[in-house]
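comment on this one:
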Amino acid sequence: VYAITAKGRRALKRWLSEPGRAPLVEFEGLVKVLFAEQGTKQQLLATLASIRSEVDLARQHQAALAADLAGTGGPFPERLHVNALVFKFMWEQGQMLARWTAWAEEEVARWPEDLSQPAEPRVMTVVREAAASSNKRDE
């Protein structure tokens, strides 16, 4: 059983009054992707497959949690509205990672074995779309 002391509750209230920060990403697999041209295509595909597998497992756990929250409210039903905010972030992050790994695996499958060679121009579409989107926001 966990409990909070009066001193802990005061510290929590002070901490909650401070602005929150955006997430920091710690993602070893993405660092391996970033330096993939130093290795082999098979190593890159194995890294992507490993990421996909971990994402799939996490999403299975999240789906089970969602079923519990929807059916019972979970272990803290009085906090469901707050827990749902965090759950939505986790769920959408999982969806994004699932889309990204599927896209990346499809792209890399088309690449030559020698990753030091530039990839097809089609992969640059993502960069161009992001640049165009950023420019539109600034107007």
